[in-house]
């Protein structure tokens, strides 16, 4: 595993563009720090400051930071699809196989790189969330601090699942731009399918089925926190209540999709004439 990971990292770091994109994907989450210090002075009458409004209290901060950080995943998604696009355009894939790398090892090297960078990103978000929470939160009990930290696990699984999907599209289409475009196509297809199911049956059943779709299942791992933030300010508004928790079956669905995407990527490469 270490040998395959080192091989992939060497390839990635040879490209200046990839270096920049990887750097951006790791740096962007730090903008959450700017968000925490966000202040607006309204004509000297009062100052609007997010950090003082309780939105960075434990345990809700785990939900907030992982949701916002996951929106930056597209930068590393470009790196993932370019890993495959460059292999085909530079003909390094064929050379690797000639040099003794099996097709299984080739796919595993890409997957190991995905897991490696997802782990680093997850560690950054974990430390960042902990730092912001310890600074702003009015709670300092260990039990409360680490309550709902399962959002960190959900964040990691979400990244690995999404990047594995990007890997599959890159293997399928061989071109970075087409692979990224297919993410949008898949998004449209999922919503069209949802509409057709809702039309044929009912909305509740359609939503249950939709939660098994690739992109939707990844989104469901970390639901939007805005409604939850509103609930903390208006606790009497029971109609705003919703299920925002991380559930084991949602994690399992994304892990299953991850396995399917990696397996299909291997099958594509195995059958393809290079």
Q: How would you describe the overall organization of this protein?
A:
There is one protein chain. The protein has 274 residues and is an all-alpha fold. 72% of the residues lie in helices and 3% in strands. The protein has 14 helices and 2 strands, in the order αααββααααααααααα. The protein has one domain (2-271). It has helices at 2-13, 16-27, 31-36, 60-69, 74-89, 92-98, 103-136, 142-145, 150-173, 176-200, 203-210, 214-221, 226-233, 248-271; strands at residues 39-42, 46-49. Strands 1-2 form a two-stranded antiparallel sheet.
How many helices does DSSP assign? 14
Approximately how much beta-strand content do the residues carry?
A: under 5%
Helix/strand order, N-terminal first: HHHEEHHHHHHHHHHH
**Helix proportion range:** over 70%
Largest sheet: 2 strands, antiparallel
Rg calc: 21 Å
Q: What number is the mean pLDDT?
A: 83
Distance between the termini: 24 Å
How many domain modules?
1
Name the poorly predicted regions: none
Number of strands: 2
* Global geometry: globular
As laid out across the biggest beta sheet, the strand order is: 1-2
Which structural class fits the helix and strand makeup?
Answer: mainly alpha
